[in-house]
Specification:
The complex is a heterodimer of chains A (295) and B (343). Chain A is an alpha/beta fold and 295 residues long. Chain A has 11 helices and 11 strands. The chains are: A alpha/beta (295), B alpha/beta (343). At the A-B interface, helix 4, helix 6, helix 7 and helix 9 of A face strand 3, helix 7, strand 6, helix 9 and helix 10 of B.
């Protein structure tokens, strides 16, 4: 069972839900992997506190030009859609930070003057925490493109009974890359106008990918009831409600797991895990074609 | 003209509520919402849309089924997993299925092969029976718009259409002009849309001779954040006193330093954990990042949001006074700094 924990809005409690779910799954004796795909701002390690076992640089391929073989034909510059390779005044300039790594320039170069070389974009770290196989990626500061790192982080851990994927906020490329291939997407929201607005956007994105989803409402007793109405109208199941509890907020601020400090939250997350297992058992994901947004 | 960008690293620390309050306090300014994939500022500033524009960025490959010979060149060369065969899996040759699903895309072959690697991979996939396997299609969400398949298709059966990625708006609010955007569902290119929003905000400020642009930035430190902060006069980082807030703030301040942008710190909900708040302040002192102010934890923040108001419009003291102090500090820092921006 691969569950992605996502949300449109940041700070709704994704990491809280994901780390606690992984922890209770491990308590229940299942083999669990926790994968933090929020490579821009990874936080899961602050709560699960893993013992690191491996750490290696994550790379992506960018072109490297052998000037002695280059004939200045300019084909590489024509094919690149991202202005990452520019033949200019007898030289070929490579802007590695703009490169998407499609390999187009290498393919069209008639003299084989372009080869691809790895460029470091961040670190991939793995370890063990509370019986949970822990993986996360840390994007280098100043690096713009995070999807290649997310792809590698997602693929790194071994197969386990339960895989909990902590997604980055938003509804754009990093979030899409993270949730793609999951069996189920758990959307964490809060009952405020901002929370609801961003939940709507995120639900549209997940539906476009054809993935089944459910909602967890965090700080459920603040704000208003519009989120419940929305979920009812859209026939989205609310799988858990977490109250606005100062104890939880303070435990969070210190990097403690709610399920570890209070039996009542351990029950809440165990129930959520049971619900998810039930859903995963009956409904294999059914990909629906996404109508092209452009048309 | 000065451009202030409100940023946080971690999401949900109160960027948007703070931005809206600062815009109200500024009185006369241009507001830009650069969190284009989860925009919320419009929920507080209730903009009246004056102009809307389609935002096209990049291209999208579309295979014309009637012209596709099924050679598989597109499948063999796409690095984004965007090409799939329409032929039902059971009709595909067993060898091909095994090859496609066993391949873990480790790219060792491509990286190490001294010959023209992709041609070899192509030859292998053709030999395994991709050829004649039937129509291929492009997944619009996975397509990166690199055009490799378009270039390589021997039948020239792939169109390369401009991609409609979203919309951007110029609107009127009670604080002045607002430029904002909405990214299309499951669309990418948010960095370019952010650049468009900022550019239009500068143009509007120039035209109206408004001295101040206030930008609501996205969370994180990646492409849309970089697009939001580069070249700005000043960055105000809104942090919360939690372990994750502290961790994420450090990364976003590193980013500011990397791009040479002057920054200031504002701690929201500081009384939630005064010890961590003090630690964050000490860190910022060490880094010569001035403290613009502390905002106390108060549910008035959320209540104002539900009323589509800012907290500074609803009261004078308490949390509203905290934000006024932050604004005064920001103005002072902007005035002694020299970074002017131009449209």
């Amino acid at each position: 069972m691969r569950v992605s924990v996502a949300s449109g809005k940041g700070g709704t409690g994704k990491t809280t839900v994901a780390t606690n779910l992984a922890y209770v799954a491990s308590l229940a004796g299942r083999t669990v992997a926790y994968v933090d795909c929020d490579v821009e701002e990874p936080n899961g390690h602050l709560f699960l506190k893993p013992n690191w076992l491996t750490r290696r640089p994550a790379t992506r391929l960018v072109p490297c030009v052998d000037e002695s073989k280059c004939t200045q034909c300019g084909r590489c510059g024509e094919v690149c859609q991202f202005s990452a390779i520019v033949p200019l005044g007898g030289k070929v300039l490579v802007y590695a930070e703009l490169c998407h790594g499609c390999g187009g320039c290498t393919l069209v170069c008639p003299t084989g003057a372009i080869r691809e070389e790895p460029r470091e974009l961040g670190m991939l770290e793995m370890g063990w925490a509370q019986g949970v196989q822990f993986t996360h990626g840390v994007l280098n500061v100043g690096e713009a493109m995070c999807t290649p790192l997310i792809r590698q982080v997602k693929d790194a851990p071994p197969r386990t009974e339960v895989t909990v994927i902590d997604a980055p906020p938003g509804t754009s490329c990093p979030a899409i890359e993270t949730v793609r291939g999951s069996d189920f997407v758990l959307m964490v929201t809060e009952a405020t106008p901002f929370g609801l607005n961003d939940l709507r956007l995120a639900v549209e994105m997940v539906r476009c990918l054809g993935l089944p989803l459910g909602v967890v409402i965090n700080r459920a007793d603040t704000g208003n009831r519009h989120t419940w109405t929305y979920c009812g109208d859209q026939q989205i199941r609310i799988l858990a409600e977490i109250p606005d509890d100062r104890r939880i907020a303070e435990a969070y601020s210190r990097g403690e797991l709610a399920a570890m400090i209070s039996p009542e939250y351990r029950d809440l997350f165990s129930k959520l895990l049971a619900e998810l297992s039930k859903i995963a058992a009956v409904s294999p994901s059914s990909p629906l074609a996404c109508e092209s947004q452009a048309s | 003209m000065k451009e202030l960008v409100v940023i946080s690293g971690k999401g949900g620390t109160g960027k948007t509520s703070t931005t809206a309050s600062l815009a109200v306090l500024a009185g006369r300014c241009v507001v830009a919402d650069c969190d284009v994939d989860a925009a919320d500022l419009h929920l507080v500033l209730s903009p009246k849309v004056l102009d809307r524009h389609d935002f096209y960025s990049g291209h999208q490959a579309v295979i014309r089924e009637e012209d596709c010979s099924g050679c598989g060149a597109c499948l063999a060369h796409c690095r984004f997993g965007a090409i799939s065969s329409r032929a039902p899996a059971e009709e595909l040759d067993g060898g091909l299925r095994a090859a496609r699903y066993d391949c873990e895309n480790c790219i060792v072959c491509r990286r190490s092969c001294p010959a023209r690697a992709n041609d070899m991979i192509h030859a292998m996939s053709v030999a395994m029976g991709v050829a004649g396997g039937g129509g291929f299609s492009v997944d619009p969400v996975a397509c990166e718009g690199c055009g490799v398949c378009v270039n390589l298709c021997p039948e020239k059966a792939i169109d390369f259409r401009p991609r409609l990625c979203g919309e951007w708006f110029v609107s009127q609010t009670r604080c002045g002009t607002m430029v904002h955007a909405k990214l299309g569902i499951a669309q990418s290119n948010s960095g370019k849309l952010v650049s468009t929003v900022r550019q239009e905000a500068r143009r509007a400020a120039e035209k109206q001779d408004v001295p101040m642009i206030i930008v609501d930035g996205p969370p994180g430190i990646g492409c849309p954040v970089i697009a939001s902060v580069t070249g700005a006069s000043m960055m105000l980082a809104v942090a919360e006193p939690t372990l994750s807030g502290e961790h994420d703030l450090k990364r976003v301040l590193q980013l500011a330093r990397h791009f040479g942008i002057p920054s200031a710190l504002c701690i929201n909900k500081w009384d939630l954990n005064p010890d961590i708040a003090a630690r964050i302040e000490a860190y910022c002192r060490e880094q010569s990042v001035p403290l613009a102010g502390r905002i106390r934890y108060d549910r008035a923040f959320t209540h104002a949001q539900i009323q589509r108001q800012t907290v500074v419009e609803m009261s004078e003291d308490g949390v509203a006074a905290d934000i006024r102090a932050v604004w005064a500090a920001v103005v002072a820092q902007l005035e002694c700094g020299r970074a002017e921006v131009r449209a």
